[in-house]
Amino acid sequence: MYEVFFRKFNEKIQLTEEEVTFVKQYLTPKKLRKKQYLLQEGDICRNICIVEKGALRAYILDEHGEEHITAFALEGWTMGDLSSFIKEEPAMLNIDALEDCELVLISKSAYIELLKVMPKFETYIRILMTDAYMALQKNMTNMISLSLEERYKAFIRMYPNIVQRVPQHMIASHMGLSPETLSRLRSRLNSRK
Amino acid sequence: MYEVFFRKFNEKIQLTEEEVTFVKQYLTPKKLRKKQYLLQEGDICRNICIVEKGALRAYILDEHGEEHITAFALEGWTMGDLSSFIKEEPAMLNIDALEDCELVLISKSAYIELLKVMPKFETYIRILMTDAYMALQKNMTNMISLSLEERYKAFIRMYPNIVQRVPQHMIASHMGLSPETLSRLRSRLNSRK
DNA sequence: TCAAAACATTGATATATGTCAATGTCCTGC
DNA sequence: GCAGGACATTGACATATATCAATGTTTTGA
């Protein structure tokens, strides 16, 4: 149980068997069926989740009620509305399952307790946050400095699994494009090679 | 010396006088004149910096050589190309001074050593990264879900000091707009009230 | 197994923003 | 103190992308 979670953990920080057992006490498994919600806008995000299996998306609704996908999460990725989790404020994000999912949840109290009693956990979180920040930064600089075509090609290169498993209009939404524009972009790219 | 740095630190984690003295050993002061560079694209970012006084900007050059400002930093803010600092890869960002600056630098070796020997430093960095991630996320969701006008009003509300101290065309660049478009947006807002 | 929904594509048109250019003002450094 | 540059504004025009609509295909669920 929790194989993916601990595989990811061990990539950053080695844990002994006892430590694994110890951490497991603080984790909760959760299954989610396709289209079910993990979090809805306005609720407080009570858990950080790690995807063991399946796929999630996070999206925000704009003033016209349009969905804008802010993130996908596949196996091994972390998902949640971090601001809501940390500050215990209403979430801006909606998170739902794109496929049937198996998740690992860390509650706020578990998070706080683990940070307090287990330095290796704090180190792991520090690294996780650093990596997440760098990834977001990278996305932002790509968004700013690349042409549409280059952005799409970079996305395919970076996240080939997402392109395979997620409908195209959601990728368009994630890139801030209409489905039509992405479709035309793709046909331009195909005709060119 | 390093007043701003330790004020910020103490807002998150209380330090004893001895701890302050200890941390000071790892810090280096640096002055920068307006328009001088702290970091240039292609170089490796050897230091994380905290602004004691003055203002910095970070920008990236796109394929046409156009500048796109990715961040500003005023007193108390942290600045650097984090990916370059952590991975010791060539930086994508250019960082220069918008005003004469006084900075505090933390070198990579100081960063690693402090993380190793001082749990409070690791906790501080963990919180810093978490906050930075949340702020970037917030910017991204604003970018996605708000109209231009709302984005500009949100920016003014959030960073009134930047609006006062930074030329308008740089704010346009930071918002991903041409200077003309921001100018027209502002005149629209003014005529309306 | 079939009907309905979800999805991708393509065309016609609308619109927001960028680009180019001209003008005037205000800094700023020599 | 003045000249040149940086900056903001405004107008005319170009262009990329959104929007609306129609069509065909694939997936899904009863």
UniProtKB/TrEMBL annotation, chains A, B:
<dbReference type="InterPro" id="IPR014710">
    <property type="entry name" value="RmlC-like_jellyroll"/>
</dbReference>
<protein>
    <submittedName>
        <fullName>Cyclic nucleotide-binding protein</fullName>
    </submittedName>
</protein>
<feature type="domain" description="Cyclic nucleotide-binding">
    <location>
        <begin position="15"/>
        <end position="115"/>
    </location>
</feature>
<dbReference type="InterPro" id="IPR000595">
    <property type="entry name" value="cNMP-bd_dom"/>
</dbReference>
<dbReference type="Pfam" id="PF00027">
    <property type="entry name" value="cNMP_binding"/>
</dbReference>
<dbReference type="InterPro" id="IPR018490">
    <property type="entry name" value="cNMP-bd_dom_sf"/>
</dbReference>
